[in-house]
Amino acid sequence: ENDLLGKMPIRNKKILITAGPTYEPIDPVRFIGNHATGKMGFDIAEAAASLGATVYLVTGPTALTLKNTAVNRIDVQTAEEMYSACLHYFPEVDTAICAAAVADYRPDVVASEKIKKSDETLTLTLVKNKDILAALGAQKKAQFLIGFALETQNEIENAKLKIAKKNLDLIVLNSLRDAGAGFGTPTNKVTLIDRDGTIEPKPLQSKEAVAYEILQKVIQHYER
Ligand code: CTP
Ligand code: CA
């Protein structure tokens, strides 16, 4: 029985996870999106559930499906919908891990009819979306809060700035400079940075393995 409990180290924890891209509508048939597939967030959700956690997975549009039927999946389209769902679940969870590639901007108006082709140029005005992770950081009480950072330059420095700005406990730095890392790959190369400034570069490994590395940090946090 002890062994079983050992394999379920976060069985009494509730974890909120965000995944995927968001789609920001332009008109009834078009949107602004990005290349995120949702795989990193889904792998974290599967791993957390297998370690015994109660999981709320808030995901943008994705073709992925979950193997573990215990995961509570909440499907959303836009950053605004993801924000509402996350703020709803956050007060009752112990940990939140924001792996979604949330659109930073959305069209200021959504055309109610399909936009017809006319002039040689078309200008869209975009307005900033709310930062979900920063909102969770501002509201957090005892929650352990983990964010991701996608950087192409001054990676460590920018990631540390995000820890401070969003009140995070840990950030998972993704560098697009590393081959085999990022969008649409089964692998990822990340660097874990905690709020004390400890930097742990990880080797290139499957996203599934990266998910366990991240959850190891959650387990360590609750063991202390
Ligand atoms: N994030 C979020 N809500 C947003 C934008 C980002 O929750 N509206 C989260 C992402 O899920 C990720 C972290 O914030 O965990 C960092 O995202 P990233 O795009 O790297 O950073 P930004 O703060 O958006 O800044 P920039 O894109 O300018 O680097
Ligand atoms: Ca961003």
Short description:
The chain is of the alpha/beta class and 224 residues long. Helices cover 29% and strands 26% of the residues.
Q: CATH superfamily assignment?
A: CoaB-like
Number of domains: 1
Query: In whole angstroms, how far apart are the ends?
Result: 22 Å
User: What integer is the average pLDDT?
Assistant: 94
Low-confidence stretches: none
Kindly name the structural category. Answer: alpha/beta
- What order do the SSEs take from the amino end to the carboxyl end, as H and E? HEEEHEEHEEEHEHEEEEEH
**CATH-scheme architecture:** 3-Layer(aba) Sandwich
Radius of gyration: 18 Å
CATH fold-level name:
Rossmann fold
Main beta sheet: 8 strands, mixed
The share of residues in extended strands comes to: 25-35%
Which helices and strands, and how do they pair?
Layout: H1 2-6, E1 14-19, E2 24-27, E3 30-32, H2 39-50, E4 54-59, E5 72-75, H3 79-89, E6 95-98, E7 105-107, E8 126-128, H4 132-139, E9 144-151, H5 155-166, E10 170-175, E11 187-188, E12 190-194, E13 199-201, E14 205-206, H6 207-223
Parallel strand pairs: 1-4, 1-6, 4-5, 6-9, 9-10
Antiparallel strand pairs: 2-3, 7-8, 10-12, 11-14, 12-13
Helix pairs in contact: 2-6
The protein binds cytidine-5'-triphosphate (CTP) and calcium ion.
